[in-house]
Amino acid sequence: MQTSIKNLKNNLSSYLKLVGRGQELVITSHHHPIAKIIPINDDTATGKIDKLFFAEIQQLHQRLSKNKLKTTMRDTVLKSREDERN
Q1: What's the N-to-C CA distance of the chain in angstroms?
Q2: Does 32 lie in the same domain as 11?
C-alpha cells in the first residue's frame, strides 16, 4: 500500500491499524517513495535488529573501557572553557 505524507498525516490512525494487521505502507513525497512503515514482529525489527544493536553497543563499551582517560570529561570541558576566555 502507498500514500502521501499529507494523506498519512490526515489518516494516521487508519493507516497504523492497517500496518498492525500486517500491511506494509510506503510513504511518498511528490510521488517518490521516501519511507516504509512495516509491522513489527519478533523475527524482524524488534528481535534481530535490537539484538544486533545491543551487541554492537556492548562491544563498543568493552573496547572503550580498556582505554583509561588521562583527565575526566568535566576537567576537559572546564579547561576548554578557560582557554576560550583567554
Answers
A1: 60
A2: yes
**What residue numbers bound the domain in which 7 lies?**
2-37
Pick from 42-46, 52-56, 66-70, 82-86: least confident? 42-46
Q: Provide the number of structural domains found in the chain.
A: 2
Query: Are residue 24 and residue 52 in the same domain, yes or no?
Result: no
Kindly report the pTM of this predicted structure: 0.48
34, exposed or middle or buried, with CB in 10 Å at 0-12, 13-18, 19+?
Answer: exposed
Could you tell me if 53 and 77 lie in one domain? yes
pLDDT in tens, 13-55: 999 999 989 899 999 999 999 999 998 775 555 567 777 788 8
